[in-house]
Amino acid sequence: MLFWHSHPETYQQHAQNNYIRDALAPFLKHEEEQQSTEIGVSPFHHVLCAATSPAVKLQDETLTYLNQGQSYEIRMLNRKLVEYTDISSKYIKSIVRVVFHDRRLQYTEHQQLEGWRWNRPGDRILDIDIPLSVGIMEPRAHPLQLNTIEFLWDPDKNASVFIQVNCISTEFTPRKHGGEKGVPFRIQIDTFSAGEHGEYTEHMLSASCQVKVFKPKGADRKLKTDREKIEKKSPQYREKYQPSYKTTVLTECSPWPEAPSVSRTSNTPSPGYHIAHTSYSFPEENCSPDQQGELHLPSCSDHLLPSSSMQDTQQWLHGNRFSSFCRLFSGFSGSDLLKMSREDFIQICGPADGIRLFNAIKGRCIQPRLTVYVSQLQNRNQLHTKAVGEDVYHALYLEDLTVLELTEKIANLYNAPSQQIRRVYRQGPTGIHILVSDEMVQNFTEECSFIISTMKDECNDGYHVVLK
């Protein structure tokens, strides 16, 4: 690995005012007076010591290029330079994550990380360079969360943590013919203070920035190319783009929805950093487990309708065995899901669950293996009100191709108990009755038709069915 940063001097060797001013310049030139008068603004600032790209338009978020495996410093700064007395504990916890910037990849984060783990056994997406870091305590990296690290630091002092991102942006793009455009990541830091019970659960600040990771020295070449490209443009054109700063200030964002500890693991896809998520639960008194322990939910529709509300959609997902995706689709109504394509579901849920969910939402019926048409023989004493040849036939759709299935379908068609049908015969040549077996059902031709008649069983109250 490449280590471009030498070990930083201790903070006592610097005047803190100059240290922070140098790190944040020129971002705070026009904001210091305004920020000093703001109420409720967090005193902390996080600065990534890597240059921003000049090929970013003014209205867009900054973009920073990083080299794979290189140690980059993130400065944890207290810009007010006063004792932070709003917390009960001496130390606070910061959790650093490398997450996806694109929403579709956020939805499939678990599958993407598992694929990366399979291709890179023993490696981590995010590492902490402990020898270079200053002012941090108890650094941890959970073995199952490859993209997360955490540590403690003193809020009354400044800290500096060096991180290494070991994945590159093109590892999560489809392989075609080479030269694929890499996906952007986000470096997000969530900071928590200790609560009454000593657990770090009180959220204080969340900040993030957009980055792309290249193979070693690739970030330097990309940054040089962007600068040369912008310098060749006219002054009017360059005014539309941001200047390149030597450091990247992480901007405030929504806190990461996972619990603030890497000791907890989850197999559910992580939602986007900027999306508000809520979980849905049902009242226990409205649900009752059956003998097999399955949960039956009230008023669960077989099909998802465009008029279904977000609550109805959550209930439909639960009732159709898609509970693991309820949190992911917590803000979706029925019309939202119905507008999604098969490819959308596959990208979000994975191939197996995506296809299954798409088929269930679209109400696609399973193609039967055999279709049989039957009509009941009219009683000779019954008055016929319809013309000859206008007998009504009913379709029976068979999947297992067994006599038992055929018997149950006939019984359900005429609302009769299947136990009363003792045997099924087929009328053969010269009127003989041939006992129908599973092999005979399997050799029925597609869309064959029969006239059904019944015979009383002389031994009991049952009936025999004859197919003519």
UniProtKB/TrEMBL annotation:
Keywords assigned: DNA-binding, Nucleus, Transcription, Transcription regulation
Annotated compartments: Nucleus
Keyword Transcription set for record: yes
Pfam assignment, any one: CP2
Source organism superkingdom: Eukaryota
GO cellular component: nucleus
Molecular function terms, GO-annotated: DNA-binding transcription activator activity, RNA polymerase II-specific; RNA polymerase II cis-regulatory region sequence-specific DNA binding
Transmembrane segments: none
Keyword Transcription: yes
Main localization category: nucleus
Annotated protein name in UniProt: Transcription factor CP2-like protein 1
Organism per entry: Sinocyclocheilus anshuiensis
